[in-house]
Automatic annotation (TrEMBL):
Protein name per its UniProtKB record: Cell division protein FtsL
Coiled coil keyword on record: yes
Coiled-coil annotated spans: 24-51
Keywords: Coiled coil
Length: 108
């Protein structure tokens, strides 16, 4: 009887040791995954920090404003080319007049 109780207790302890080992392996894998995620987030943080530093420089801000045509230095001229509205309106009107049931409008 004592022998059966000893085997039962031993089997119980072995079973729970296996479960604890499996849980430990699972938690180690999760920790490794989280560590790699932390590393990638740190890298992204550094990239964004350097982009912020570049974006706050006066040279970069001048460049952006120049590209948008909102800034010029002394002696410079800004030229803006705007397409004529009349041409755009004529194109819209021609497309509106094209109708699939009017065969004369198919080849214009």
């Amino acid at each position: 009887m004592l022998l059966v109780l000893g085997f039962g207790l031993g089997a119980f302890l072995v079973f729970y040791n296996i479960r604890i080992y499996q849980k430990r392996v699972e938690l180690q894998k999760r920790a490794e995954s989280l560590q790699s995620q932390i590393a990638s987030l740190e890298s992204r943080k550094n990239e964004l920090g350097s982009a912020i530093q570049v974006g706050t420089t006066q040279e970069y801000q001048e460049k952006v404003l120049r590209e948008q045509g909102l800034y010029k230095k002394q002696g410079e001229e800004v030229v803006t080319i705007i397409p004529p509205k009349q041409v755009q309106e004529e194109q819209k009107q021609q497309q509106a007049n094209r109708v699939w049931w009017n065969p004369f409008s198919w080849f214009k």
